[in-house]
Structures are given as C-alpha cells and as structure tokens.
Specification:
Structural class: alpha/beta
Largest sheet: 9 strands, mixed
Order of helices and strands: EHEHEHEEHEEHHEEEHHEHH
Radius of gyration: 19 Å
Number of helices: 10
Number of strands: 11
CATH topology: Spore Coat Polysaccharide Biosynthesis Protein SpsA, Chain A
CATH architecture: Alpha-Beta Complex
C-alpha cells in the first residue's frame, strides 16, 4: 500500500498526542480554494486536536498554504480514492490515540458548536458508533440524507428510469421522507458528507473499503458499523452542505458511481439480502409509532 500513496510512507503522527479526543480529515482533489478555506476555518475553530488534509491533486500547492498551522497535518498522496484518502488519516488518528474522528467533505461548513455537540452526544451514548448531524442546504432547507439500506431498484430506478411518479414513490420510503427529521433516530444508512465516528468501533469494523474508489464507500462503512454499534441521526446540531451531485453532471463520475453500486451489491447481495430486510424493517418499526398513519 505504501508505494501507492506518495509521501505518506514512513509518516508518524505529529507530536504523538496520546489520548487526543477528536481528529478530523478532509480529502481534497483540486478543490475550490474558497470551499477548502471555509471548511478548514470551521474545523480550526472547533475542539479538534488534529486536522488531516489529504491532497489527491496532481500538485502539492496546498502544502504552502497550510504549512504554518501546526493543527493541520498535510499529506500529498497519489489519488487512491475518497475512502482510501480518509484511511490514511484514520490510521494516523487511531495511532495518535483519538477517541472520535470526523470525516468531512470539502463542501461542508458550520457556524455553531457542532464538534462539541457531537462529542457530548457520543459521550452520553456509548453504544453509538457513528452519528450524523442535521444536514442543510445553504438556504437552510433540510437535506433528507437518512436512508434505508438500498435495493438495486432504489439506486438504479432513481437514476435511469424516466417515470417521475415511480421515482417519487420509491424515494419516499428509501429516503425516509416519512420520518420526522426533528427527532434523533437510528438509521441504517447515513451520508458520508459528515461522519462523526468512534475510533474503537472502527478498529473492530475496519476502515473504508478501498475497493470503492468513490461513491458507496460511506454506505458500506455505515452498514458495517451498524452491525456492531448504533448509527444515529442527531438533529441537535447542524451543518451546511453544498451538495454538488457531481455524478449527475460529469460522465466520468457517473461511470465511477455505477461501478461502485455494482461493487456494493456484489459484496452485500443484489436481491437476496436478509440483513437489509431485517435492518430496514427494524428501522421503520421503531420510528413508525412517532408518525402514525404516514407509511
């Protein structure tokens, strides 16, 4: 692995901060500077011990921009994929003794005390392995990123079948549009745009599966965490997400998305997936009593 990730080889955590409570990682690939500056500003003013900036760009121009900040650990790497990039940081974070680690998209930003709020939530809920805050569009409207574990129909019909009424009907259940997003709830699939995870759980489940170059790696990891701990949506704090939907605009990213979806179902099962059925049913049953006559 080390021969594929540039100057990561031989790196050890800076200052060896044992018992570091929270670390975070951002994977950049020719990211817009204003987006990166904004998420770094949010992370730097938060109670995060170390921010790992993994740069997959074809040059390391970012190195000079962050070199003077001791809180940022910059690593220029060959592009080994989104999950692979975060795995570089996760290995360092675990080695440094971090208790929690936040995976951040570059297009995320926040204004309130999100990290402190999520840390407090995890401290009060030791059975939780992953928590996601409320995710909003820049205009403040909510992004419904809580989902059930998908069937092939969920992921393929919503992208390629031109029947809007069918897509709406499928998405209503799959995206949990029936759920009350003002409530904390255990959800089997949470978005990878902001993942706040317990490191000792990650040591049990393993990190991101690097066979997924991009897309579905968050779904796969969330599912594995859910096998040993709770995966929770917590609306007590919120972040903004620009939500570019790159695979809807870029043919290369679309091919990457399709390949990852195929890899996911090859791994977990296409139409025969008893765990999917069990966990989805349990999620719906648990939440249903709070919103009667809506399903």
């Amino acid at each position: 692995m080390q021969d594929a990730i540039g100057d990561y080889e031989g790196i050890r955590p800076i200052n060896q901060q044992k018992n570091m409570l929270v670390t975070a990682s951002i994977v950049a690939y020719h990211t817009r500077q204003e987006d990166l500056d904004r998420v770094l500003e949010c992370a730097l003013r938060s109670p995060i011990g170390k921010i790992y900036l993994i740069d997959h760009s074809t040059h390391d121009a970012l190195r000079l921009k962050v070199a003077d900040n001791p809180k940022i650990h910059y690593i220029h790497s060959l592009n080994i994929g989104y999950g692979g990039g975060h795995n570089i940081a996760l290995r360092l974070a675990v080695d440094a003794g971090a208790k929690y680690h936040a995976v951040l998209n570059p297009d995320i930003y926040w204004s309130d005390n999100v990290i402190a709020g999520l840390t407090e939530f995890m401290e009060q809920h030791p059975d939780c392995g992953l928590v996601m805050p409320r995710i909003c569009y820049p205009d403040g409207s909510i992004q419904r990123l809580c989902k059930l574990l998908p069937t092939p129909i969920n992921l393929l019909v919503r992208r390629f079948v031109p029947f809007e009424s069918l897509r709406r009907r499928l998405d209503y259940r799959y995206e949990m549009q029936w759920a009350d997003y003002s409530r904390t709830m255990e959800v089997p699939s949470l978005s990878g745009c902001f993942m706040f995870m317990r490191c000792d759980v990650l040591q049990r489940t393993g990190f991101f599966d690097e066979r997924f170059f991009m897309y579905a790696e968050d779904l796969d990891l969330c599912r594995r965490i859910g096998q040993v701990a709770q995966t929770v949506y917590y609306p007590g704090v919120s972040v903004c997400h620009k939500y570019e939907k790159g695979s809807y605009k870029n043919r290369k990213l679309l091919k990457c998305h399709i390949r990852s979806v195929i890899q996911y179902f090859n791994k977990w099962g296409w139409f025969f997936d008893p765990e999917r059925r069990r966990r989805n049913s349990a999620c719906v049953r648990t939440i249903k009593h709070t919103i009667p006559n809506r399903l």
